Structure formats: C-alpha cells, structure tokens
Amino acid sequence: MRTHPLVALAVVAATITTVAAVGQAIPVPPQQPLKKVHHADAALDAHPAASSAVPQWLIAPAASAASGADAAASANAIRRPAADASPIERGRYLAAAGDCAGCHTAAGGTPYAGGRPLATPFGTVLSANLTPDATGLKGWSADQFYRALHEGISANGDHLYPAFPYNWFTRMPRADTDALFAYLQSLPPTPHKLDRNQLPFPFNIRALVSVWNMLYLDKTEFKPDPAHDEQWNRGAYLVEGPGHCAACHTPRTVLGGPKSGHDFQGGAFDTWFAPDLTPNGRTGLGGWSRDELVQFLRTGRNAHALATGEMGIVVQDSTSLLADDDLQAIASYLYDRAASPAASMTPPDTAMMKAGEAIFVDQCSACHLMRGAGQALAFPPLARSANLQQSDPTTALRIILAGTQASPTRAQPTGFTMPAFAWKLDDRQVAAVATYVRNEWGNAAPAVAPDQVARLRDKLHFDAHTDGRTKPTPMTHPGPNTLGSADTDSRDNGSAQAGRAAPGGDAASAASKPPSSPDQASGPGGAPPLSPGAAAS
Fold first, then answer.
1. Boundary (domain end) residue, out of 314, 335, 356
2. Which backbone phi and psi does 73 adopt, to 5 degrees?
3. pLDDT tens column, 394-421
C-alpha cells in the first residue's frame, strides 16, 4: 500500500516538531574548552607562575550592553598589553608578534627550546634554545640580548647567522627587546644541547658573516613617519620589525640578502615560495579586501585561501594571537605599499592545457569544483588565486606532490587536508595539471616544466612507496586496492559497465586490445602517456 505524499509530509513535520520540543527540554552540557594547539598556549601552561586563566591584559571586559554572541566575542577579544603591563606580559605579546615559537620549537619539542632545522641555500642551521637553561639563554644579560637582536652578535662574541632575522629585529627599541628578554627568562629552563652549526666549509666560519652585515645590516631603530597616522605606523613597525614579514616574502640575492627594490614581491625559501604581499591585483593582495586579510591573519582562512605550511605556523603561533587593531594596522601598511609590476605572460601549450584539464577533472574537481570555485572556508578557490599565479610555482607544486593541511586556530579548529599526489602522478602529469590550474578561469602564470617538478620531488625526500618513481603507481597503473584496469572509465566503477575503455582516442583504442610491448602500454621511458584517457582511470 502506498502512502499519499501529503500524509508523508505531515508525518515528517510532526516528527520535527516533536524532536524540537524534546530538545528544548533536554539540558545542554556546557561546551568543553577547545584543545590547545598553539606553542604559545603550551608555554603558558608550563610557566610555573601562570594561572589556568588567560592573563587579564589579554581579555577585553565584556560590555554591559552586549548580549549573546556579541558579548562572547567581546569577552574573548585579544588586547594589546597596556602601557603599564608588566615586562613579562608585554614580552609574551611581542614573542607572538615575532613568531618566536614558530622557528624556535622543534617538531614535537618544548616551545622555545630550539632545534628546528632551518634550511638555507648554504646548508642547515638549527634554531637556538631561547629558554633560560645552560644550553640556552642562561647567563645572558639584557644588554647581550639587545646586541644579538641589533648586531647579530651572541653573548660569547660569535656572529649569529642571518637565518636568525636580526636585520629586521634592529627596528625594535630597547624597551621592547628588554620586555621580550624578560618573558623568555621567565620560561621554564629546558635542556636542549644542539650542534647548531651544520653548514659546510667555508660557510661554517662565522666570522664571514661580518661581510654579509656590511652589505645588508641596517641598525636603524624604527621611527614613526609623521606623514602617516598612528595605525599605519603601528603596522609598519610590526611588519618591518618583530614580524619580519620581508624575511620570507622578499626575493634574495645570491648571498642571501634581501633584494633591494623588491620588498614583499615574493620570495623562495627551502621548498616553498612565499607569495607577493603587495597590492598587485593578480599575484598580491589586490584581490582581497582589508577585512579579508585581517580575517586570514586571525583565523587562517578567508574566501580566497587557507593558511598551510609555513604560513600556517605563522598564523597559528603569531597572527591569530594578536589584537584586532594590530591586524588592522598590518593591513593598513601593506595595502599602502606600491604594487609589484605586472608581468607579461606567454600562453601555455594547448596540448599541455588539455592534458592538465583531464587530470584536474578526474582528480581535483570533487573538492575544487569544475570551474575552480572551491567550497567556502574548506577547499580554497583556484579561480583568480593569487597563490597559484606566482611567478614561481614551487608552493603549488609542493602542495600537489606532498599534500597539505590547513593549520587549526581557535576560530577555525578544523584543519582540512589535501591528499598527496606524488605517488600517483608523474612529473609530466604534475606539470600539466599545475600549468592548467595556473592558466584557467582567468588565471595567468608561466607554464610548469616537468624538470621543475622533478627537482622539487627530489628535495621532498619521499619514501619508496610514495615517491612515484621507486614504486610507481601513477593513474594509468592502479594500485592493489582498485579493481579498475589501466585506461578504463572511472565513471563506470561499481556498475555493470566497469572496465569499459575510457574515451579519448588513442588511449581508448589502446585499452581495447593488448599492447604489443610494455613500452606501448606505458609511453616513452615507461612513463604513462599524457592524454585525457590517461586521466580517466
């Protein structure tokens, strides 16, 4: 017997009403506090004098007229320390502004205890222990700490390597370096003996840094510009001083110094490329509003991007812990700078774009959607993406090869993850899909060559099961967990037509008959052919 649709609808409505009524009668347990994920939180918990409550200077009093969500937001707003706050409290805030924990905390290690490897073009340097242990800053004076931040000289008189960005910390006045030192001295001492100098000869000779200092070290402290307002000057200080944004976002010379006249136009480091921070409408911040930049710095995501990788650490341990007026000040300063010059583009090869499109449709469109629109605050849009359109594709290639995860913050605790494709796509396929997404939907960027992918793949040190070479499992050679055969149409999976040859001309015809040799099945050199059919299996 069939139930009339109107009767069924009435039953559903009655059920919803009953559930709602019952729900109102059930007491709701109080929300559990969010699990802490910040280095700064861990340091606060470990501090012997710290209470379980957040310091009062960090909490804005709730307005008496505020109610509901407004009152909650006001109560949890982060505030800058008042002028009469203790040096330790001011130093804690400055440590967040400088992202000290980001570099001076090893993976799984104690906050500020150092040991994180910092890759440079000249070799690897391990970050220093900043806790007051004998292996760290025990025995240092405030004068020696000031000298380290302003001259790059350690307490024992040795030169510090500029992987420690003292050439930006010189902007910090003595009152701020003293406050920062007071906070670091208040941390629990953590033994962590390190062989920090792992550079090869002759770069392991610290005295050579004196030459670098003559070329690039400016010891001038920050002075407010009377031509600009207080907000602009505060932003300039944070960006140019403790925040040292240009350390990553400015291209470098062959000697590792900032390239003059190219401030904030994007810079390569290790296996990343820090994007353009100028108001350039295509590669920079010109496509974002100021409020969107503030949202990104506060929460790690906005309508355009999610903070991952190194920038994810910066947001997690630094900008998400700053007061809103400081984030607004940073935006005010960055948007007032001159935009980087527009670059001329050569359209990519049509065949490469077609191959990249096929891979994108089969592998990427489920999350990023067919037109690259993405899904708000979860999977970033690829259309008009500044990150994708950088002159250097390193970050885009790294994310495709190794995958990535959005860094969780208090405002956005869910870290959405993109899977790695190094095991699945060979160098030509990665180059093709990267070129496609960098030049579709209004995007424009230089084409990616397979050898660029190969060099980055080598640097990322995948194991034999994931490097895509030692144990290749590209798309046309399914792994043991799939029943599909090479060059079959994945849309048929799970149906009676499973195993049908994929459309695509040569690939489809090749799939309908056995190859006469292994090379015919895999393409030149044993690599899978780049074709729409290859992307459909």
1. 335
2. -65, -40
3. 999 999 999 999 998 888 888 889 999 9
* Phi-psi map region of 33: left, alpha, beta (phi>0 left; psi -120 to 50 alpha): beta
- Look at residues 87, 185, 207, 95 and name the one whose alpha carbon lies nearest to residue 141: 185
Residues in Cβ contact with 33 at an 8 Å cutoff, skipping those fewer than 6 apart = none
- pLDDT tens for 519-536 read 433 333 333 444 333 333
Domain identity same for 122 and 160: yes
Contact 444, 345 (CB under 8 A): yes
Q: Which of 333, 350, 438, 339 is nearest to 394 (CA)?
A: 438
Beta strands at 404-405 and 417-418: parallel, antiparallel or unpaired: antiparallel
Residue 375 in 3-state DSSP? strand
Total number of residues shown for the chain: 537
Of 522, 415, 374, 497, nearest in space to 35 by CA = 415
- Cα separation, 143 vs 128, in Å, equals 18
Assess if residue 274 is contained within a domain. Answer: yes
Q: Are 118 and 126 in contact (CB under 8 A)?
A: yes
- The answer to the question of residue 451 being in a domain is no
Domain CATH code at residue 324 = 1.10.760
Alpha carbons 529 and 210: distance in angstroms, whole number: 53
Burial of 293 (0-12, 13-18, 19+ CB in 10 A): buried
Please give the Cα distance from 295 to 520 (Å, whole number): 52
Average pLDDT of the residues in 316-338: 96
Would residue 15 count as lying in a domain? no
Question: Could you give the dihedral angle defined by the CA atoms of residues 105, 111, 113 and 115, in that order, rounded to the nearest 10 degrees?
Answer: -20
* Angle, CA 61 vertex, CA 229 and CA 292 arms, to 5°: 50
C-beta of residue 94 within 8 angstroms of C-beta of residue 179? yes
